[in-house]
Amino acid sequence: MRVAIAEDGVLFREGLVLLLKAAGHEVVGCVGDGDALLSLVATTPVDVAVLDIRMPPDPDGGLATAERIRALRPETGLLLLSHYAETHYLMRILEVGTERIGYRLKERVAGVQVLDDTLTRIADGEIVIEPVLAKRLVQVPGGRDGGALSALSEREHDVLRLMAEGRTNNAIAAELFVSAKAVEKHIASIFTKLDLPGDQAVHHRRVLAVLAYLRAQRIDG
Amino acid sequence: MGVIGGVRWGGVLPRRLRAPSRDAADRRYALERTLHHGAVADVSVLALELAMVSRSVADPRLDTAQTTLQRALDDLRSVGAAIYPPVLAGAGVGPALRSLADRLGLRLRLDLPAHDLDGDARARTGLLVADHLQTLCPGTAVHVRVRGRRLVRVRIIDRQPGRPGPRHYRAALRCG
Fold this sequence. Notes:
A: alpha/beta, Arc Repressor Mutant, subunit A, 2 domains, 10 helices, 6 strands, elongated, B: alpha/beta, 51% helix, DNA-binding response regulator (chain A), Sig_transdc_resp-reg_C-effctor (chain A)
């Protein structure tokens, strides 16, 4: 896979290059800010661009750069990295796109296998969401009635968390050691219990519906 | 005092919250940046280096070390976010407080002015409310109302699970 990197931390950038090469990917460019990445993507074929969220030109320059790359080269996948798992960043990323896009914590992709898996999923058109963030959204805050979320079984809760990570039915089945058919049943039950609209068959719409629901549970106004 | 936006703000004498000064807000921002570019960045690089070492050395202690590093980063993140919410400088009071409420498991209702607060008011108001949110336990319902431009008035009502009655707070910040 042809990968380009924009990260203002020199040591992290160099470490990421080594890890990507170790995973068998071709690093076609490695720059320190969003504008340089945009110039690179404009002239060089890139399968996935890896961007730091908090880098120049703005405080959150990675987000603005991701928007510009998506407009210029919609076929290029985007992996946004941050030291922080913030729902605000997630919502902004979902505004940039809901396919071929990912948001992960920097240290959580520090591993050949997890980095490779993340990039492959993005290149395949999936949306990849930091599991830490998905888990937080799915958790019912202590001491309060979780409403419809409390009505979910433990297994349905697991399926909901993996859906919020952007996992496909097959990936959820593999993670939970159940059949894809069983996952489909759980998802249908979740959508009924949460009264979620939308077409469950369209993967990215399903992820969006789940995330919008989970967010709305926490924000009242 | 009375009913504003469907919320009863009166009834009890609100406690006063003290907003950080402009200097304190600036210092907190600089401190978070130092932590972000220093310790957090260094530990993240260490995580990458450990991953590279794991490629050539099969030792279960490396997995333990990786887990320890992740835990250290989680702690550093919590400290950094408490010093200065990461979203506040880039996106403003609303997104910063909503993200914080998500992280803390709070049910937040925000009533913000239609206009954007300027840099000073934004930072000090955001920090004032964020500091209060940090004191609440998960599941707490919080209503925050902000008004004004140069003289910013903040009112907060929180209702913590298992505790009787709501608590009322207010603050006024002279900004600009």
